[in-house]
Amino acid sequence: MTPPLLQPPGYVPVPEGTNPPLNSPGYKSTGLRAPAQQPIVLPHRLTEVTGPLLTGPVNPGDDDLTIGANGEAVGQRIVVFGRVLDSDGRAIPDTLVEIWQANAAGRYAHRWDNWPAPLDPNFTGGGRTLTDAHGNYSFTTIKPGAYPWGNHHNAWRPAHIHFSLFGRAFTQRLVTQMYFPDDPLFAQDPIYNSAPEESRHRMVSTFDLDATRPEWALAFRFDIVLRGRAQTPFEEPHA
């Protein structure tokens, strides 16, 4: 038996109902990929809590999705920025933040996305950055378009940006989506509505005129809270 002083810290489970369920009836494809039986939570050992470490480089320009190999991306330039915080409002520094999204026409640069909307040769849709000492992050990108996705009749996904946050190990990964204010497609989007009603607003960014860059890009603030009563909803429960 491991002496008490050498026990790894582990992760405290979030309260029931904090995150969307793995099987949400309104979100059709979850019925195909959600586990049929209750997942078994394995005890955390030291290697799962502390490593492997994420030490890969973040290159200059990885946070600017508007600059392609042969020119600028097409669409409304936006700045998406905010802070990553813990449940007590303390900044989380040196966290790897990655985003991926559709282009201005609502199409992903992916071989499986083949609906008839134009691809942008100067927009890959992916970016990454590290939070600074105060938990701040920022991306310059293009506002994504809505797209059809076949979940139900005349189904369209609201404009959104996917976020992935890594801690110091691969087991410390959280995934969520950021939406834009006043989107008319919220009411019929089962992914947005799978989150508890009282927490859905935490996935919606806030337009920030003060941070908007004159004659260049609109700005949207999106703060991400990892745990606690003000936690941002994430896409799956984490033990």
Structure notes:
The chain is mainly beta and 239 residues long. It is 5% helix and 22% strand. The protein has 3 helices and 11 strands; from the N terminus they run ααββββββββαβββ. It has helices at 30-33, 46-50, 190-193; strands spanning 77-85, 96-100, 126-130, 136-142, 147-148, 156-157, 160-166, 173-179, 206-207, 218-221, 224-225. Strands 1, 4, 9, 10 and 11 form a 5-stranded mixed sheet that branches. It has a 4-stranded antiparallel sheet with strand order 3-2-7-8, with no helix packed on it. The longest helix is centred in the first third of the chain and has 5 residues, at 46-50. The relative contact order is 0.22.
Short recap of the structure:
The model has no long low-confidence stretch (mean pLDDT 86). The protein has helices at 30-33, 46-50, 190-193, and strands spanning 77-85, 96-100, 126-130, 136-142, 147-148, 156-157, 160-166, 173-179, 206-207, 218-221, 224-225. It is mostly beta strands and 239 residues long.
